[in-house]
Write a structure and sequence with these properties.
Structural class: alpha+beta
CATH class of the largest domain: Mainly Alpha
Shape: globular
Number of domains: 3
Strand order of the largest sheet: 3-15-16-17
CATH architecture of the largest domain: Alpha/alpha barrel
Distance between the termini: 73 Å
Largest sheet: 4 strands, antiparallel
Strand content: 5-15%
Number of strands: 18
Helix content: 25-40%
CATH topology of the largest domain: Glycosyltransferase
Number of helices: 14
Length: 559
């Protein structure tokens, strides 16, 4: 028999009896052990092999025998210490609801699992997902950072800094790059190194740039880290310039995209599969496309830039951005609203026609606060109506559309992060019961997936046809913004609205659904202050107790 051990700058300790010397030398990087026992009929022979490693290389060490009594270096100790540091510096969330508690713990562990170092020394980021997306994605990094701001604002600081360093500074059609644009994807494998793919990095995303500005504003609200805002202000202005120039190439007031790279993505919103954008009759929409959610992101990004500019004393920029945001919101209502469907079109196509399929995209308008209140109610009814609501969550595309496919990547599947954004939007407009239904569906879904882990997506079959959420065959799991969705759902239910500069944390109309009696948040950070909160269900709303407070922070509950 032979035993092969991969050897990476390590020595192999062998106990007695030593095996016979092999007839042929082992291949480079391997250790070949040969045993040749003689067995009598009916007898047996047992071999037990224990392999430990030392950091010293085994090269030139003869047969591998080592002397001395020093213990082997245990890398697991360092990993365990890193995990302890992660948890101790994150907000702890506990609840007596067994499944919710398990899901929150799994989500935080998955985020730690997805932390990658690089690309430069000292940098790190949360990879988008395993196994397909184990690298840096701009959109995913930003949305995940937004989701986990109440739990770990360091994620946002790291994402903002890294994405600013990699922000495009020149035109490059091969990589769909334009000055000021935030990257889509960074790869470092053989194809990227050989120039066969444009992911070095690739900039084919229309939404990462306005989302970057939203994250910068949200991060400042939670931390009041003025030093970082000041340092990244030139990057923020460059992103804003991209929105106003390259993003709106035809000058119609909307941000559109079209692929320029022959190896780039046809669709460049979060629904980026080639068949994602369709009319009601199933016809594919033709680019350039102005996606509805992107216009909402731009609206919110302009308002965040106006607020930050005012903090910095640039009143002219603040006024200009507030005016532009108001005008954009008016144009969205004029060009995207579909009164017959009670929702917004998912896009405008190359001919400025509304892409009239009923989809989850409109929920992002609610999240950004862009929709008119009376129309927001109709959008809420659409999201929870029979076409979009599967019973396990909101589908990406209504089952009433010709292009609906419950196992299509973006054609009727259910994405946890999309549902978390929808729930946040519903709560923003006061639709508590509807948001609670979405949150309950996501939590119930965790009970059917291994380790209580929400995957990237699952199939959009109706709950009446399936007693459990049907897995999408090749979903990434763990996946960053799927894990982060649980924290966004909770933060939305609690109505967390920080103002670190004012030393205030507002819980705006906090509510807990019937199935969640209480939640304890420990080590919640707002600016330099730290607070522990106990939120419990009380007479249809939620009561809040401050258990511990360090630093100057007012906790305000508005019912």
């Amino acid at each position: 028999a032979s035993l092969t051990v991969e050897q990476v700058d390590a020595c192999v300790r062998l106990g007695e009896p030593w095996p016979d010397a092999p007839d042929e030398p082992a291949e480079p990087g391997q250790v070949l052990l040969v045993f040749d026992p003689t067995l009598a009929p009916g007898s047996s022979w047992t071999l037990e092999v224990t392999v430990t490693t030392d950091i010293e290389p085994a090269r030139g060490s003869g047969n591998g025998r080592r002397t001395g009594t020093e213990p082997p270096r245990v890398a697991g100790e360092e990993a365990e210490a890193a995990h302890r540091a992660w948890y101790s510096s994150s907000t702890s969330i506990t609840t007596p609801h067994v499944f919710a508690d398990r899901a929150f713990r799994r989500a935080l562990a998955d985020l730690r699992l997805l932390v990658n170092s690089g690309p430069a020394f000292g940098e790190r980021y949360i990879a988008a997902g395993v196994p397909w997306f184990s690298c840096l994605f701009g959109r995913d990094a930003i949305i995940t950072a937004l989701q986990v701001l109440p739990v770990r604002p360091q994620v946002a600081q790291e994402a903002l800094t890294l994405l600013a360093r990699l922000q495009a500074t020149e035109m490059d059609d091969w990589r769909d790059a334009q000055p000021g644009k935030i990257l889509h994807e960074l790869r470092s494998g053989e194809l990227a190194a050989a120039g066969e793919i444009p992911h070095t990095p690739y900039y084919g995303t229309v939404d990462a740039t306005p989302l970057y500005l939203i994250l910068l504003g949200a991060y400042q609200r939670w931390t009041n880290d003025r030093e970082l805002v000041d340092r990244l202000w030139p990057n923020a202005l460059a992103a804003l310039a991209w929105i106003e120039q390259h993003g709106d190439a035809d000058g119609d007031g909307f941000v559109e995209y079209i692929r320029r790279s022959e190896r780039g993505l046809i669709n460049q919103g979060w629904k980026d599969s080639a068949d994602a954008n369709r009319f009601r009759d199933g016809t594919l929409a033709r680019a350039p496309l102005a996606l509805i959610e992107v216009q909402a992101y731009v609206h919110r990004a302009r308002l965040e830039m106006a607020r930050l500019a005012r903090l910095r004393g640039d009143l002219a920029l603040a006024d200009a951005q507030e005016t532009a945001a108001r005008q954009l919101a008016e144009r969205i209502e004029t060009h995207f609203w579909m009164d017959d469907a009670g929702t917004y079109a998912m896009a405008l196509d190359a001919d400025k026609r509304p892409v009239d399929a009923i989809s989850s995209n409109a929920a992002h308008l609610l999240w950004c606060g862009t929709a008119l209140p009376d129309r927001a109610r109709r959008v809420a009814e659409s999201l929870l109506g029979p076409g979009l609501w599967s019973g396990w969550g909101i589908r990406t595309l209504s089952s009433e559309m010709a292009g609906f496919n419950p196992i299509g990547y973006h054609l009727g599947s259910v994405w946890p992060h999309d549902n978390a954004i929808a729930a946040a939007g519903l709560l923003r407009y006061g639709f508590r019961d509807e948001a609670a239904r979405v949150a309950a569906a996501m939590l119930e879904a965790t009970m059917y997936f291994r380790d209580s882990r929400l995957p990237e997506l699952f199939c959009g079959f109706d709950r009446s046809r399936s007693p459990y959420p049907v897995p999408y065959p090749v979903a990434a799991s763990p996946q960053a913004w799927a894990a982060g969705s649980l924290f966004q759902l909770l933060g939305s239910l609690l109505g967390l609205e920080p103002d670190a500069a004012a030393g205030e944390l507002v819980l705006q109309a906090p509510s807990l659904p019937d199935w969640l009696p209480e939640v304890r948040l420990e080590n919640l950070r707002v600016g330099d202050a730290v607070v522990d909160l106990l939120v419990h269900r009380s007479d249809g709303s939620a009561g809040v107790e401050v258990l511990r407070r360090t630093g100057d922070l007012a906790v305000v509950v508005r019912l």
